Amino acid sequence: MTHSRPLAPGTWVVGKWTHRRWRIRGVLGTGANGIVYAVERDDGLKGAMKVCETAGQVAFEWSLLNLVRGPGSPFPAPQQIDDSDRPGARFFYVMERISGKPLDKVWPTLAPAMRKQVMIRIVEGLAKLHATGHAFCDVKPQNVLVQEASGEVRFVDPGGVTPFGKAVRQFTPTTDGAFFGLCDRRASAAYDVFAVALMAVSLEAQCPANLYDLPPEKRREWLLRAVADQVDGAWRPVWSRVLRREIRDADALRAAIAEVRVKDKARQAGQRDWTAAFMWASVASAVLTTACAWALYLRII
């Protein structure tokens, strides 16, 4: 898609059919098939407006959001779909504006236990999507928003979601199993499971500059070395099982992640555990106090 110049903040977009007015507040992101704006409706409702090049693209994403809507949905709730006469926003829909930060931005700040919780919630969200017969197909850190305090996870950019069995239309090479020769580039639960493992590796291992120039077998060799040498040892068995094709669906991946034994935060950070030292110091203090009391009683001191 060739994007036109983004709409300026303050611009009003008026729905042709609903006659609702949405004010542009800024650009949230630009994807392969559209621009997403932060918007506010004329009655104060906040949202995120996805502007696409064709009505068909808008209709497909809108139908998907309605398919997976409801309590616990990982995707934004749909709010409105319409057309407008505004250049640069002819075909659009508006969805819930999700707060949070991209996974790659918060990952370094998360405690080990919270990392595990976030990964479980990512996989649970994918399981809900897979139950509808669709795969995300563009799992990557930028499409996963995390609330740092609660660990709540939501997905953004449903533009790549594809029915099982269909060719993947939108993907990111470093989280694309086909890029590493691990699977076909067709939508499936396994395709997303590979993507989760690849995303996890990308959060801890630096890709070589020439990765894109290597053939798939060489890319796969680098990937296996990265898992062996750079990934946290607690997680290594899980991602290795995925890459060996032993884990092929979200439920199996969730079960494997649930078994991961994360390290204590203080020990993980290389800090000394003072619990034992404090306990023995308390015991020594009590003994010394008792000895002094007896000494005074017996008039030794």
From TrEMBL:
Q: Which UniProt keywords apply?
A: Kinase, Membrane, Serine/threonine-protein kinase, Transferase, Transmembrane, Transmembrane helix
Name under which the protein is recorded: Serine/threonine protein kinase
**Residue ranges of the TM segments:** 277-298
Q: Supply the source organism for this entry.
A: Alicyclobacillus acidocaldarius subsp. acidocaldarius (strain ATCC 27009 / DSM 446 / BCRC 14685 / JCM 5260 / KCTC 1825 / NBRC 15652 / NCIMB 11725 / NRRL B-14509 / 104-IA)
Pfam families according to UniProt: Pkinase
- From what superkingdom does this record's organism come? Bacteria
Q: Which GO terms describe its molecular function?
A: ATP binding; protein serine/threonine kinase activity
- InterPro entries attached to this UniProt entry: Kinase-like_dom_sf, Prot_kinase_dom
Record has Cell membrane as a keyword: no
Domain Protein kinase positions:
22-301
